[in-house]
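Structure tokens please, single chain.
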Amino acid sequence: MSTKAFSTTISASHTAVRQTAKTSRFNPGPSTTMKESARVARPKQSHIQVRMIDNEEEQEMVYRFRYGIYVEELHRAEPHADHERKRIEEPLDQDGVLFGAFRGDEMVGTLRMNSGESVRGYYEDLYGMSAYAPYFPYRTSITTKLMILPSLRRSSLSFRLAEAGFCYAHEMNFEHDFIDCNQHLKTYFLKLGYQQHMSDVEHPIYGHVSRLRLDLNDWAHLMDVRSPFCRLRLKRQTLASPCPRITS
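Here you go.
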């Protein structure tokens, strides 16, 4: 299927995603109350494009975007933060796949995925990935660094970034994806189709986190939780093609 055809398919289904987003608002920052959420107007997403990062200039935009979110907004003590250059580049970036959301020339969101082959050691132990042999390491992945510009956190953009990662995971024939998140984001990931497979743990940087697993081919569970990924089953041919550019 062509990129144009895929983009049409994604755009046509955004209404369903936005409907899901009404009950699951992505926000990588501090949690908000229902009353606070009700007072926030839904931002527009005109001409936002989600795509895989494939050049050094856009990689640098990702590193600077992370710094703006993690250090300047959330005041986290990131071990790989370069405060002089205001950027965060990590060892996992060397073998990872980066996705970016762009509004014109402005980056408004990003996500990183790594195959299980590239995360042996800390993440292998954190998520108990070795228990998923024979799929581990080559048919497993981890998702990290999913973040959105504050003004767009109440939009469907987080679902679109997650969808790009889901398409890529199917393209790579992965079976399981692993992630950890703070408590106020747990419902969001459960609605995507992740399940808690290990007890919560204290992360040395991010505090109390839940450890979750997504079974990429468990369509029965995805349908049961009404995951926005379900519509991709109806267009299964898109999962066999390179991860496309998705434009709103």
